[in-house]
Amino acid sequence: MRTTPPPRALTIAGSDSGGGAGVQADLKTFLCCGVHGTCALTAVTVQNSLGVSGFYELPASAVTEQVEAVVTDIGVQATKTGMLASAAVIEAVAAVVTRLDVGPFVVDPVCASQHGDPLLRQDALEALRELVVPLATLVTPNLAEARLLTGLDVRGREGMSEVARALHAMGPAWVLVKGGHAEDDPGRALDVLFDGKGEIELVADRHASPHTHGTGDTLAAATTAAVARGLGVEDAVRAGKAFVTAAIVDSFPLGAGLGPVGHFWRVLAPDDRSQP
Ligand code: PXL
Asked: Does some domain include residue 225?
């Protein structure tokens, strides 16, 4: 046995019954990135490759108690959020992460699934903006989420800079605006990282795959794992982006709809992956 535990990370997020996104993606990613994953479930979604047909959120106290149980005994070196579901859960998360030492805090402001199904109740956007985003070490919206959070109807490369600045003004130390959904450069996946001083462009080849379920969760989780292992935010985001790019290359069809990004590339040799 080992004499010391590996680094630990906590995800505060929802369950995806299809196994591609949410807590399931986070825990797979944590393992692949050498970190022991812990979780505080916020909601249980009912979903498959065709979409989210509903979700059941947990009582806010259940979320608080899970975070307390993990942090006061196991201890974590970094924490991320995913689907927070409701204003009540968001208020509870903001309170508990302020009270306890959860390490660097990565906020993935999940609002909807890739099918466009809502994962956040309507009244919760303001709570997310006011209570959780300001506490973030790093907030990782895609352009659509950045528009919702800021109210700015921006597009393209210039728009990414504008929303990065507007989000930074809300209080987080770093902002990563993901341009995967940008319209003006289909060949590249361009993200903008901003710390209030300089802007860093992160570019990866864009791999055409319809099976991108879990992309944002995997990027945020891989980044959180890298932070838990001691990397600074910029290096951690670079590591997270490299991880998710490989996972998009490893994506696969599932069911009749959108398949997930793959984590198999990290645990199986290429020959083993082609076996049924
Ligand atoms: O990918 C965002 C996301 C996060 N969390 C849960 C989800 C999804 C997308 O479907 O289901 C639980």
From this structure: yes
Atom of ligand 1 nearest to the CA of 213: 1
Which residues does 126 contact at the CB level (< 8 Å), separation at least 6?
Answer: 87
**Helix 87-99 / helix 60-69 crossing angle, nearest 10 deg:** 30
Among 11, 12, 16, the mutation site with the greatest number of ligand 1 atoms within 8 A of its Cβ is: 16
- List the CATH number of the domain containing 61: 3.40.1190.20
Q: How many domains does the chain have?
A: 1
**pLDDT band, residue 185 (cuts 50/70/90):** low
pLDDT digits (tens, 9 = 90+) for 155-171: 999 999 999 999 999 99
The CA-based angle 182-183-187, given to 5 degrees, is: 85
Q: Tell me which residue range forms the domain holding 127.
A: 8-265
Which tokens belong to 259? 């398949």
pLDDT (tens digit, 9 = 90+) per residue, 112-136? 988 888 899 888 999 999 999 999 9
> Is residue 34 included in any domain, yes or no?
yes
21 C-beta closer than 6 A to ligand 1: yes
pTM over cut 0.90: yes
Q: Could you tell me if residue 163 is inside a domain? A: yes
